[in-house]
Amino acid sequence: MITTDKKIELLAPAKNKECAFAAINAGADAVYLGAESFGARKKAGNSIEDIKEIVEYAHKFLVKIYVTVNTIFFDNELDDVEKLIWQLYEIGVDAVIFQDFSFFEMNLPPIALHASTQCNNDSLDKIKFLKQLNVERVVLPREYSLKEIKNVTENVDIETEVFVHGALCVSYSGQCYFSNYVGGRSANRGECAQPCRRKYSLVDDRGNVLLEKQYLLSMKDNNLSAHLKELICAGVTSLKIEGRLKDKEYVTNVVSYYRQAIDSISKTLKASEGEIITSFVPNPDKTFNRGYTNFYFDGKRKNFINPLTPKFMGEKIGTVKSVKGKSVVIDSKHNLNPGDRLAYFDRNNDLTGTTVKTVNKTAIEVLDASSIKQGTVLYRNYDSLFYKSLNSAEFKRKIPVKIFADNKKIVIKSFDNNQITYEYKENFETANNIEKAKDTIAKQLAKLGHTEFFAKETVIDEAFNLFIPVSKLNEIRRVAVNQLVLKSKKNYKFQRRDTKIEYKDYPFNVLDYSFNISNTKAKDFYEKCGCNIKQLGKQWAPEHTKCPNITLMKTKHCLRDFAGICLKKNKDTRKLFLIDEYGKKYPLNFDCKKCIMKIEITDI
């Protein structure tokens, strides 16, 4: 039983306007998306005009819109960043998600600020520091256990946001320089090339190959759907779905699933308005995923990765019994359908696929069976019937209203006591058939089909006896609904930030490249907070050959443990290295007290 009165926000991603509207209609309480620049997903940008349209639709249902401006900036970009924040504020965006601390040296409007996970919010002292800067919310590291989450909610009066579903970065956010090093595309600039989704071999200092050509850094997807009650009871503010590069189908399916899951715990937790009307049955297993993990939520080390593939395998269908031409016989209890897509591992152990053309009682015909052999295990990663159901499903989000009418007025009331009273200006005649008049006014006032409202309750006073023409009732309804929309918009409550801050000591005195200080405003801010800046983030970024001695990545994923040679369990102290597909070798270091693995570089 959930006893909290606190509202729980379901926060959904949106690549574009289509995905944003889909997320709202599927039940999101808030949506986060990128602007045309300065977001951590460079390929997921939206124009100011599109964001404004999204805001106007979202706010009808008290759904909040957050915009990501969560990259690090260079000096020549600071004016453009400041201009962008003002534009977002003026069109009604609820909050901006940031990484770069130059924000606190800019002339910004009082828009709410959320500290991105890219800020590396990995300690209570850092989070307390953010609170002192009037930051409204902190996005907690994906690596946090439930115990660590509770430590924040119990000790800092700040909103907390936790990732509950979607892709996992193998590195601590904001601390990954791998992509920048191998190809000049920085994750902290929204351009990650995802080298973690490539093949590597694990070797030791004696030349032994421990694991060969596997996806040793490719994390499974996060799924905390079984732990929602624990997160709610822990005092978390927002449950966040990852996926700003995902399509409309993914967003609709996953948001709908989590909306229903939260509502099944308690219908009083919803942080926005509007009932979701749909017959669609969601299933996250049917849309893209890399297999699931709850990562470090329970504080226990486990297998976080899928070393076989970074792609979507789907559900296991069965094993091939025989192949003749394009006809395949499968030992399976699953029903397949034309249009289903099948995945399997070929002779090179690469995931490939084909499509089902026809199905009969004993076999299926596929487009290409050339690399399918007897004994091949088949998976279905596209269920044509599920996608048909998903794409044909209708989602409506409607705000319930109560309608009352008597001989003097009509009252329409929605959430938060938003209410419109329409008093008759005309002298209507007494109806010849009073029951028919009551029935007519009830039916006409409830015709709200093309609006965001629906009549939850319609009450006609017993003494009502007026004859009001249908055309007049329609006019009254239109006027009243328009006034209700305007009143709801006027009464919308924004969180506003106090832009005056006190410069207090930062939790760390000496700062190196890992603090990503890449512009003069960020430098000025940290120095005002008593910091000695040893290295600027941009000093090493342009030229790979002049990198200082840096850690490319630090991660909770430990390859010693994965290979069965954890130092806590045996005395095997040999040095380990990762080797990429081009023969490049990366030393691995292990901090066993913190259970952290570090990937280093050698070309100093």
Give a brief rundown of this model:
The protein has 604 residues and is of the alpha/beta class. Helices cover 23% and strands 25% of the residues.
Report on this structure.
- This protein has 604 residues and is an alpha/beta fold.
- It has 13 helices and 29 strands.
- The protein starts with 8 loop residues before the first strand and ends with a strand.
- Mean pLDDT is 95; it is low at 539-545.
Ordered list of secondary-structure elements with their pairings:
Elements: E1 9-13, H1 17-26, E2 30-34, H2 48-59, E3 64-69, H3 78-90, E4 95-98, E5 112-115, H4 124-132, E6 137-139, H5 146-155, E7 159-166, H6 178-183, E8 200-204, E9 209-214, E10 221-223, H7 228-233, E11 238-241, H8 248-265, E12 275-277, E13 292-293, E14 315-324, E15 327-331, E16 341-345, E17 351-359, E18 364-366, E19 377-382, H9 384-392, E20 396-405, E21 409-413, E22 419-423, H10 434-445, E23 453-460, H11 470-490, E24 510-511, H12 520-528, E25 532-533, E26 551-555, H13 559-562, E27 576-580, E28 585-591, E29 596-600
Parallel strand pairs: 1-2, 1-11, 2-3, 3-4, 4-5, 5-6, 6-7, 7-11, 10-13, 20-23, 24-25
Antiparallel strand pairs: 7-10, 8-9, 8-27, 12-20, 14-15, 14-19, 15-18, 16-17, 16-19, 17-18, 20-21, 21-22, 26-29, 27-28, 28-29
Helix pairs in contact: 1-2, 1-8, 10-11
